[in-house]
Amino acid sequence: METGILFDVKELSVNDGPGLRTSVFLKGCPLRCIWCHNPEGLLPRPQLMESGAPCLGCGACRGGCGHADCRPFGRCLHVCPQGRLRVCGWREEAGALAARIREQESLLASSGGGVTLTGGEPLLQGGFLLALMAELKPLHVAVETSGCGDPDLFGEVARRADLLMVDLKQMDDGVHRRLTGAGNGPILSNLSRLMASGRPFIARIPLIPGVTDTPENLRETARFLSPARNLLRVELMPYNRLAGAKYASVGMEYRPEFGASHPPNIDGSPFEARGIEAVVL
Amino acid sequence: MTDRIASLKDYIVSKKHQLNLRDIETDLAGDFSRRGLSARERMVERLETVLATEQPFILPGERIVYTRTVRSLPELFTAGEWAEIRSGHYIHELGYVSNLTPRYAHTIAGGLEKRRGEILAALPGCSGEETGFLGGLLRAIDAVEGLADRYRDEALRRGNEEAYDVLGRIPREGARTFREALQFFRILHFTLWAEGEYHNTVGRFDQYMLPYLEADLEAGRLSRGAAFELLEEFFLSFNKDSSLYPGVQQGDNGQSMVLGGRRADGKDGFNVLSAMCLEASRELKLIDPKINLRVDGGTPLSVYEMGTLLTKEGLGFPQYANDDVVIPGLTALGYGPEDAADYSVAACWEFIVPGRGMDIPNVGAMSFPAVLDAAMKDRLREAADFEEMLRAVEDGIRASCAAILSGVSRLWMIPAPFLSLLMDGCVEGKRDVSLGLRYNNYGIHGTGLATAVDSLLAIEKLVFDERSVAPGVLLEAVASDFQGRGELLHRLRYELPKLGDGSAEPVRLAERLLDAFASAVKGLRNERGGCVRAGTGSAMYYLWHAARMGASPDGRRAGEPFPANFSPSLFARLPGPVSVMKAFSGPDLKKTINGGPLTMEFHDSLFRGGESVGKVASLIRWFVGRGGHQLQLNAVNRDTLLDAQAHPEAHAQLIVRVWGWSAYFNRLDREYQDHILSRREYAAL
């Protein structure tokens, strides 16, 4: 049976597809977007996460506890009086995870919702992803992806998903490389094949101030998407200033190299001009 | 909202109508005492005095008149008399009859003169006491009519022809139109407060007022828009005098209104007036009247959507009640099927019966954790297995309920003449409502269910299953508030199953405790022959009970409160609201139907966007379909969030939508919280 690594399962997700949904976050991502709001989803392995009520500085977690599960992290996970220490990331078998989610099937189905598989980048765990999708049936399954992954896998996921949500961040290859650490060639190629396949999809555009929300980028994105007959709509996702909040909890530093305090340019008109519905989330 | 309603609202909110409140300086109690008047006679005479002192006051542009001008009611008894009464009796709260739903409709339809006729017809052959009671009702009617006449004069003086005309009929004769019926209600409700009763609930307004509205709409006397404007003015009237009403906090005044729900013929009662009430409340954004919405498994999503639009305003209503659970639950307690189907909601959440119920649904509270604490100290060392522990807890629950009941014997209530006129059978029976009615049941709240369930699970797992913690060690750890037991505390708090976390074992135990509570009260009878109802509410007892005990085996430290009402433990790590709703709709709640909602707080951002309202509505419908009995959903805003930062324990289940996903506010880092607080700039999105 396929096992995957996850970093969260969230109930009452109202912005990741139709109806009420449960979102499953697969851990690990090939991209390093400078605005990423889920830094704990980047690495494909469990990590120590420290958050919550303030540290009292009591030092109890640094005593050398001898618990097997604490050893990889060098801190005791079972003693913090504030409950600050947790491991982010766990392995779970697809069937077991699906069974857990399907306990809420009546709610998800009756609201016209379902499950959204997201990340991280779900395509990084192809075997697990496909197994999980199969196990979740007949629930409505949406997959949210950066589009950055193996073309055959991407095609297979598109065929099997009830809805695909693909991020489209930046049309300029050089800028894309600078912002995410990778070129957009494979992503655009996957998207082109998706557009030709006829499978329904939503394009999601993060509006990062001065970076992806420029009139030029929005115009180019609209131009690229305009031939698609299977594009349900474009969802504009304004940059959220909360994005940096979780970095410290996984021992990272947030250094946005853009005007993070500027309000993003929220403008759906380039899409509407081409007859594409654009909604702001 | 029309300009007229907007300016009336401004006038009331800025309290301009209360600039000239009057005081009654006479020492009525001393006078009553010297004259040796009975409590009933004092109530009648004080009502006469208060209504005579009232100075008719009509707000600019007002159509539904009556505004209280007497600041407070003079005492009925001298301090010595009251102390003597108290020493011989159980006095519930302030001593007045409270928390009932009167039968307004009968008097509104017939008028006070018709009621006078009923009283006169009942007089022949009465005993002296009965004659005194009925005579008091006649005097009360005279006093009410007298004030109405003075209001009519004032309307004339101010050129308010409409009020002048309406008061020409109302309250002597029955209402013919929606307009007259609303004015009539206002007079009756005003009089109850002036008499001294409190938590005077509104009941099933959309049912008893519908015929007037429908007739007006049908005859073309009123357009829907004009009716809505009147309704909004009527809603405003609940906020005119509320600062003068008694209550723990201002706003705790019990002006609760019930909408929708099954009718006597079994059909869905949600109607055009129900929808108008939800809309009026949403538009006015005032805390009165408090809206309760009755639903069941067949309620269409559109009704939940209307409710959710109101929730979105952050007022904390509607509170939902599920007919599929409440009606069978009340029937099983002995309420007649028609009365059960006609239930309304008391000041907070208790289910009561209009016109026929003289229940005291908040007579006391049983603390699940206190019972567990005693059972644990007493039995844990010797118990052979977990089942034996559980049985000790069940015995404790039984003993606690019996003790609560015996602590409230020799009940005495201040007579309530005018309220008696509005309760079924008091005139025919020639008996004051304070002495009892068809239903005289008591309700007991159950506090700290989740704390007790989580504690029992910890005991089961660590002491009996794993045998990893010796009974003595656990007892000592709890007694010392976990001093030097950091690892045990962490395991108890954060690493064991909790009620609301999606797992099945806590739900099974919750059901066992609730069943024990229900069966503990089952055989009990109060001195008025009523039964005792077990419930899931906590009122303020969740703080009082928690303060009275130390730590508990769920890892709750001394000084930490229990969760309020029917909710998960404050520090439980829960996957989300769906798991919570699933757990708290799991037990068979028909058996513990005194009332007490699952209480949840959602950040108002969760309701943003056109699709979100439908999604939240689906969630509530699902909860109701699963057998949840009552739900209090709060949309909270920036002010609440600031309060949550200062007092996290009071907002443990506060949910915020960070963007697509939701999180528990208190589990977010301070930085995250501050960011959410500063997010208002993005409100236009």
Domain tally of chain A: 2
Which second-level CATH architecture of the largest domain in chain B applies? Answer: Alpha-Beta Barrel
Q: Roughly what fraction of the amino acids of chain B lie in strands?
A: 5-15%
What's the domain count of chain B?
2
Strand tally of chain A: 11
Count of helix runs of chain B: 29
| Lateral arrangement of strands in the main beta sheet of chain A | 5-1-2-6-7-8-9-10-11
How many beta strands in the DSSP annotation of chain B?
12
Secondary structure: helix percent of chain A: 25-40%
Shape designation of chain A: globular
Our Rg estimate of chain B from Cα atoms comes to 26 Å
CATH class of the largest domain in chain B: Alpha Beta
Mean pLDDT of chain A: 93
Give a short account of the largest sheet of chain B: 7 strands, mixed
For the largest beta-sheet of chain A, the strand count, sense and barrel status come to: 9 strands, mixed
| Rounded Rg of chain A | 20 Å
Terminal-residue CA separation of chain B: 25 Å
Q: What is the CATH topology descriptor of the largest domain in chain A?
A: TIM Barrel
Uncertain residue ranges of chain B: 679-685
Strand content of chain A: 15-25%
Oligomer: heterodimer
Give the arrangement of secondary structure elements:
The complex is a heterodimer of chains A (281) and B (685).
Chain A: E1 3-13, E2 21-26, E3 47-50, E4 85-88, E5 90-93, H1 94-102, H2 105-110, E6 114-119, H3 126-136, E7 140-145, H4 151-160, E8 163-167, H5 173-180, H6 185-197, E9 201-207, H7 215-225, E10 231-238, H8 269-272, E11 278-280
Parallel strand pairs in A: 2-6, 6-7, 7-8, 8-9, 9-10, 10-11
Antiparallel strand pairs in A: 1-2, 1-5, 3-4
Chain B: H1 3-13, H2 28-35, H3 39-53, H4 79-88, H5 104-110, H6 112-122, H7 128-157, H8 161-169, H9 178-195, H10 205-208, H11 210-219, H12 224-237, E1 256-260, H13 272-284, E2 290-295, H14 301-311, E3 319-322, H15 323-332, H16 337-341, E4 344-345, E5 351-352, E6 360-367, H17 368-379, H18 386-406, H19 417-421, H20 426-429, E7 442-447, H21 449-465, H22 471-479, H23 486-494, H24 504-522, E8 532-534, H25 541-548, H26 577-584, E9 598-603, H27 612-625, E10 630-636, H28 638-646, E11 654-657, E12 662-664, H29 670-677
